[in-house]
Each structure stands twice: as structure tokens, then as C-alpha cells.
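Sample entry copied in:
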Amino acid sequence: MTRRTLQNAAFQTVAWGALASDPHPERFKWLLDLERIRAGGPERGNTRTWRMGILIELGRFVDEDYIRAYAEQVCELEPKPTTREAVELLRICRGSLRAQQREGA
């Protein structure tokens, strides 16, 4: 495994934990469908149970409150973004957040 693979797995785990431990994880169902995962995964022809690329990018926020806030925003978008669109949006948000934190420091 490459270093990037391990980093991505860690970021995905951080995001997964933040969303799964929320009191109302169903609001993130489009990103992480815990009910379907517990039931054994997607049935043939249905949508995915989790969106790995978006979860990886959310995990880069590290802070659980930020992860949940941005995950909720992504889930509320209509029409639903592609993974590429969602990742691009989250990277812009993370860059803005870092700039705000630097200015406040």
C-alpha cells in the first residue's frame, strides 16, 4: 500500500466516525447509508452505500463539527453533485477555512 492510500483510508475513517456518531446520522444518508451497510450492502441496481471520495475529502477537515456541517451542506445540494464537484467544493471551503484561521491567529 502506498502512503497516499493509507492517508486516504485514515481520512475516510475520520469522516465515517464523525457522521456515524452523530445523533441523527440519517441526515447524511446520501453520503453514508448506515442502514444499508448494516443490512449487508447495496442490492443489485441500487445506489452506493457510501461515497468514498467525498468522505476522504471531508475527513481532511479533521474536526467533527466541520465534517458534519460540510457533509450536511453537500447532502442538501440539488441536483446532487458528482464526486468531482463535491470534492472541488470541499477543497475550496477547506482553503477558505484555513485562510480565516490564519487571519484570526
In short: The mean pLDDT is 91. The chain has one domain: 3-104.
